Amino acid sequence: MDRLKDKVAIITGGVAGIGLGIAECYIREGAKVVITANHNVEGGKKAVEKFGDDKALFVQQNVADEKSWQETTQKAIEKFGRVDIVVNNAGIGGVNGPLDDLSLEDWQNVIDVNLTGTFLGEKYGIKAMKQTTNGKGSIINISSVAGLVGLPLSPAYSASKGGSRLLTHATALSLAQQKLDIRVNNVHPGWIATDIVPKGYEEALTKTIPVGHMGEPVDIGEICVYLGSDESKFANGADFVIDGAQRA
């Protein structure tokens, strides 16, 4: 308990699925959370009711929009006084199918949310940490095993997650060279039991996982507790794969 005591975290896409699992773990460990979503406003309200408005704030946010990021970090600072952790979790799967059938619009939509959204989260997370914590903190980018190996029918998703992975590495190196104590790491979930799992494919997908079952949002939440805490002070620019040995 209290591994994140007095820390303030922004968790994008934090009102359902993996994001909510991360928020639940963070609240348990003493953090205050700013949870965001673009469309699931009702889920945000319910999460704040569950956690308490002294511990949680919901902000409706479009992660692909720069002004929205400026407003989100400002609201976090106004409510809680600081930003210690940013978890770039919001993402979309996009349209599945062969690349030559993918429209430019569908491609761009996935890149905007999954990759540009991560870039903006890093940018404004760094600015907020410089402003409120003397340049100390942790940025956690939720990528995917699709950022490590390609998914043949999800080219935009794979490209966005692979791009997020290398953006993480580049940012970690840049901040370290600037002597800023802001760490940046990737988490790569495998199949987690959330609404993003295609309906009707659960059994077939589970057979591809060596441990014999899908993960739970809390499995990602626990590694994010470690990465958000001072316990991980030497973990920087790294990839943490949580996939039930699927990529082993």
Automatic annotation (TrEMBL):
Q: What EC number(s) is this enzyme filed under? A: 1.1.1.163
Q: What is this protein called?
A: Cyclopentanol dehydrogenase
Mind telling me which Pfam families this protein's record contains?
A: adh_short
- Keywords (A to Z) from UniProt: Oxidoreductase
What are the recorded Gene Ontology BP terms? bile acid metabolic process
**Where does this protein come from, organism-wise?**
Lentilactobacillus parabuchneri
Which NCBIfam families does this chain map to? PRK07231.1
> What family does this belong to?
Belongs to the short-chain dehydrogenases/reductases (SDR) family.
List the top taxonomic levels of the source: Bacteria, Bacillati, Bacillota, Bacilli, Lactobacillales
Enzyme superclass (EC): oxidoreductase
What molecular function terms (GO) are annotated for this protein? cyclopentanol dehydrogenase activity
Where does the source fall among the domains of life?
Answer: Bacteria
InterPro entries, A to Z:
NAD(P)-bd_dom_sf, Sc_DH/Rdtase_CS, SDR_fam
